[in-house]
Specification:
Helix content is 44%, strand content 0%. The protein has 107 residues and is mainly α.
Amino acid sequence: MKLQIWGTWLFYAILIDLGDAVADELSLPFDRISLEMIYRGLYHFGVANQKGEATDPVKYFAARSNKDLGIVKPKRKNNIKLIVAPFRRKQRNTPEFFFSAKSLTYP
């Protein structure tokens, strides 16, 4: 059991290191790199390595021809605050700006 836990932690550390190296190669922040897709892409790198097409995993994942592996996460849109008040201009700075449970009346 301990061997499995140590093996998992060791593989995770290697995956983090590989993701950091790919981020440096692409000049991107680390949080833009998908570790899941690097993990899934290791199979493709292994096949390319066996065919003699790739020797360095960092260069392989950073190559433009392998963009379809999805290593780089797409940028997310900014969160927009949802206004649920019926008359938002009148209620902008009041406590009733958002509906609250106490404002509901039950029969």
